[in-house]
Write a structure and sequence with these properties.
The chain has 284 residues and is an all-alpha fold. It is built from eleven helices and no strands.
């Protein structure tokens, strides 16, 4: 729905929503939902461009003709053209993910964790988290486990770093670190954004810490069945001691790695007292 709305504005809402529901019923998974959004949006744009309505019907176009016509065309394309291939693709992908084990599973977790830690709530982060949550609905838990671990590692790690090594950070980041730790504990990765804005080099540290923490959690068998990353959901995780340990290890990597990026805090300059003015004395 949001994709079709972005492409076609309000007339794209109904076709995108109904196309997404049809994609779910066809078993196409999140891939089908994405395709339905694009199909609905571009159909509405095509209708606006090529269909010329009489002046008497112009007012009915955006509120009736475009949504209804777009919905019918979207449903036809999803049901009779792309639905079956996408459903087969989705089943194949789910089967592949379900059979992943060992190194492949850990590698997938590391990739998802690195994406989540890269832009802290940005498009890459959202793409990884959305994909993990969509697979969660299909009973595939490892991507969600990796994503939920990685979400909170950067804010906790950087927040702890400002508490342990205050002199390494400017005053503004010391204050941001207090909020960052709290936001990390409740599952909000955006708490680490001030650090990335202050020095973008920390992004690489965030990616490494998030990837390793996520890979460790999945590799050691922790399973998070819910899209919850905050501390209030930790005890509901299968293998929660390993889950919490993985968060701690990833956060420690970020905290220690931040020492390579933030080396000096505020430099205080002490004003020297002004020298007493010298006067020339003319002696006669």
């Amino acid at each position: 729905m949001y994709i079709s709305y972005a492409l076609a504005n309000k007339p794209g809402i109904a076709p995108g929503m109904i196309g997404g529901l049809l994609a779910s019923n066809l078993g196409t998974g999140f891939i089908g939902a994405l395709v339905a959004g694009f199909v609905a949006g571009y159909i509405i744009r095509w209708m606006v461009r090529f269909i010329k309505l009489p002046r008497a019907l112009a007012s009915a176009g955006p509120i009736f003709i475009l949504p209804v016509g777009g919905t019918l065309l979207t449903c036809c394309i999803m049901a009779f053209v792309v639905g079956t291939p996408l459903a087969a693709l989705n089943r194949g992908m789910e089967a592949w993910l379900m059979t992943m084990s060992g190194t492949n599973k850990v590698l997938l977790a590391a990739v998802i964790g690195g994406m989540v830690g890269f832009d802290l709530g940005g498009p890459i982060n959202k793409a990884a988290v959305t994909t993990a949550m969509a697979l969660l609905a299909s009973g595939i838990y490892d991507p969600n486990t990796a994503a939920q671990v990685a979400i909170i590692i950067p804010p906790i790690g950087l927040g702890v770093a400002t508490l342990l090594w205050k002199k390494r950070f400017p005053e503004s980041l010391r204050e941001a670190g207090k909020a960052s730790t709290l936001m990390g504990l409740i599952g909000v990765s955006e708490g680490a954004i001030p650090f990335a804005l202050s020095n973008p080099k920390i992004i690489l540290i965030n990616v490494v810490g998030s990837a390793l923490g996520a890979a460790m959690a999945v590799g050691l068998g922790a399973v998070n069945h819910a899209p919850i990353s905050g501390f209030y959901g930790w005890l509901a995780v299968d293998g929660w001691p390993v889950y919490v340990l993985s968060i701690a290890v990833g956060s420690a990597i970020v905290a220690c790695g931040s020492l390579l990026v933030f080396r000096h805090g505020d430099t205080e300059t002490v004003a020297k007292p002004a020298a007493a003015p010298k006067f020339k004395v003319n002696r006669q």
